[in-house]
């Protein structure tokens, strides 16, 4: 890390920021959506947990199998086996009415005749005295204990995002907690006297809150600070005491009152911060630091610059903090090859261009309507679903790579 | 609506379910991510709210413009204009030091010289006595009040999802609340005696909770009910009193103890419910009803069947309840044309096949490894990111349409 003002490339800046963070410590917690596994998740129970019926129908011993019988035949029905009841064994020459999921004795050599293949109407009704079987199934319709997953089977590797399907799989396999990475604690400090005196509302703080929250559970503290270096220093100290990441907006440019840069340069050991220009538009002025060991990401204050910088740099940092696999670089993220639905603005420098993306089988990307997006054109952002990173002109009908938000 | 047992197509079933719901009533609420506008959102303030500087630099009257001056020239600096301060007018023959966002008097005929084009070093420092200008800018670097958005401009139409960019745009334009659709209240009733007596854990309830929560803010009540019709009827009554939607799992098939179907058929007026088979695998047994006017979606109990049915039918219903644009049909959702990375299972009936989707410029879809996914193969779901709807065989290298979750 250096504190020179030389332009960095987007790739270099991303790598430098990413070097500041590592996955947060692990803890055991209830499985919940958006957490990230810190250890592999292993089945405690086999799936299915016991032999059971795959169909609504009648359980009969193997004796009455395709090898030994011809349809139709009639058997007395000697009992009911709803799901949730104890397993029962039908005596030879009898049948049990059984429900989907109803237990079958472990290893029982028999088969389930689907109700549709008998003379009994499907659905609720009293237990019939006899059942006449019209057709024998091609398989036994018994799901064997552990036939899907054995106890001890690895359901998911470390660094897996916990989602609805993993929750279902884990609970089914008797696992309701997991060792997951701690939820990130982030302090957002929006700076600028104009935010304090009502000249401008703070839009960056709520915007970053929403962007970071969209990456998963996060504990965000938001604050607005004017241009007082003493006050900002106090905010940094408070934030560093209980945050995993500090994000500032504004105050990083070339101005005489750029308080973030001034405070960091005054307080932080040389070599532990950088402010300067990244070769990108919008959002060239950027900076970062370690404050008492806590990473500080200093975003520009213009809302479009803050927005695209958050997508380029901040949300990947959040994902790495949360324990997801570390990207190999700024472009190591989901991307699509789209067709330009309109001419894109000419990039004089690498241009981060928000765009709408239509996913209708083909993939078409459009820059927002209206004039070229400038860094204060915040009202042009709604309706965009991703960004392109343009280094050469793209005209209607040409292909380009887009990165969904 | 009929209560016959005839197979419905996926399309027909989707349309019937969708006919049960409409967007929830509107209320005024703070702008927050995931809410949906019930009315257009209109700028209260112009953007920018006042003339201001686009650069850190020096504000000078137009008199010193490219037409009338040649560089270099030197002017006394008579004041500082940080962002958040009152606007000041530089007297003729003088300059004001001004920050990005610093106010400029309304309509002031002047220009901002970027600090980089002067003899003053960028960044913090005491106000200089004079500034020498080395280069005149090609434009005035003044952002005019309302030049981006006029007061009264429509920022977003009704049925727009509130996201980070809309929050930023709205707050910037002086709007902090909006008329949005109410947050859906959903009761999930997982049925089955086996869930009550510990024979099986309830995995469907938490899974559906996670799936529905991923569509946006939702107020979910979860409950587990055994096979007692009296008790289930009580749960329906309780749920209908304060829910916008009721979702059940299990008890809809052809079994003798299929309590959901039995209770609905007993209690609900003929014509206001349907149970039967949808021409799909997995998840053929489906059902729906109106219970005291509240839509009830009855999903199958097998976890893979419940999972794919939730994606096909339930999450679109949630989006419509929340006020997003109503889909024209079950396939009116984002979709991608992918290349099969492996052979997909042969569909004997329309097959809803969860698959992983690699987005690396090209789009490749893979069915989960291992044997053909059966309706209890819940551990094969993690790692899938969408589904294909297969009606004919798809082998490696062929194209198919995938629907991201």
Automatic annotation (TrEMBL), chains A, B:
* PANTHER family to which the protein is assigned, alphabetical: GEPHYRIN, MOLYBDOPTERIN BIOSYNTHESIS PROTEIN
Q: Which GO terms describe its molecular function?
A: metal ion binding; molybdopterin molybdotransferase activity
Q: What protein does this entry describe?
A: Molybdopterin molybdenumtransferase
Entry-linked InterPro entries: MoaB/Mog-like_dom_sf, MoaB/Mog_dom, MoeA-like, MoeA_C_domain_IV_sf, MoeA_linker/N, MoeA_linker/N_sf
Q: What's the catalysed reaction?
A: adenylyl-molybdopterin + molybdate = Mo-molybdopterin + AMP + H(+)
Q: Which UniProt keywords apply?
A: Magnesium, Metal-binding, Molybdenum, Molybdenum cofactor biosynthesis, Transferase
Organism superkingdom? Bacteria
Q: What is its EC number?
A: 2.10.1.1
State the family named in the UniProt similarity comment for this chain. Answer: Belongs to the MoeA family.
Keyword Transferase among UniProt keywords = yes
| GO terms for cellular component | cytosol
Entry function: Catalyzes the insertion of molybdate into adenylated molybdopterin with the concomitant release of AMP.
Gene Ontology BP terms: Mo-molybdopterin cofactor biosynthetic process
Residues forming the MoaB/Mog domain are 187-320
Per its UniProt record, the required cofactor names are: Mg(2+)
Q: Which NCBIfam families match?
A: molyb_syn (TIGR00177)
């Amino acid at each position: 890390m250096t504190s020179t003002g030389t332009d960095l490339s987007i790739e270099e800046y991303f790598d430098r920021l990413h070097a500041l963070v590592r996955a947060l410590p692990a803890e055991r917690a209830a499985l919940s959506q958006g957490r990230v596994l810190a250890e592999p998740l292993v089945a405690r129970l086999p799936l299915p947990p016991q032999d059971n019926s795959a169909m609504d129908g009648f359980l009969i011993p193997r004796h009455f199998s395709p090898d030994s019988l011809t349809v139709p035949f009639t058997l007395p029905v000697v009992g009911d086996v709803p799901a949730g009841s104890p397993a029962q064994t039908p005596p030879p020459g009898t049948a049990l009415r059984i429900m989907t999921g109803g237990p079958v004795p472990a290893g029982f050599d028999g088969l389930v005749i689907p109700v549709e293949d008998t003379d009994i109407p499907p659905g609720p009704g009293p237990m019939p005295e006899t059942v006449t079987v019209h057709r024998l199934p091609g398989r036994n319709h018994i799901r064997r204990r552990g036939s899907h997953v054995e106890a001890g089977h690895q359901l998911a590797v470390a660094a897996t995002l916990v989602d609805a399907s993993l929750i279902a799989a884990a609970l089914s396999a008797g696992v309701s907690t997991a060792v997951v990475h701690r939820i990130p604690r982030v302090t957002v400090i929006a700076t600028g006297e104009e935010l304090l005196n009502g000249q401008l509302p703070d839009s960056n703080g709520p915007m970053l809150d929403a962007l970071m929250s969209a990456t998963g559970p996060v504990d965000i503290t938001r604050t607005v600070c004017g241009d007082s270096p003493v006050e900002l220093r106090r905010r940094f100290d408070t934030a560093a005491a209980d945050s995993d990441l500090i994000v500032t907006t504004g105050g990083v440019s070339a101005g005489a009152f750029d308080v973030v840069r001034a405070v960091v340069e005054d307080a932080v050991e040389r070599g532990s911060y950088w402010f300067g220009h990244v070769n990108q538009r919008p959002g060239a002025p950027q900076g970062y630091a370690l404050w008492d060991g806590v990473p500080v990401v200093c975003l520009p204050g213009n809302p479009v610059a803050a927005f695209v910088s958050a997508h380029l740099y901040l949300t990947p940092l959040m994902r790495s903090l949360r324990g997801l696999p570390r990207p190999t670089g700024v472009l190591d993220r989901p991307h699509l090859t789209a067709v330009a639905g309109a001419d894109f603005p000419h990039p004089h420098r690498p241009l981060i261009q928000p765009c709408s993306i239509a996913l209708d089988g083909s993939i078409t990307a459009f820059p927002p309507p209206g004039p070229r997006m400038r860094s204060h054109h915040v009202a042009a952002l709604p309706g965009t679903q991703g960004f392109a990173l343009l280094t050469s002109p793209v005209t209607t009908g040409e292909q380009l790579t887009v990165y969904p938000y």
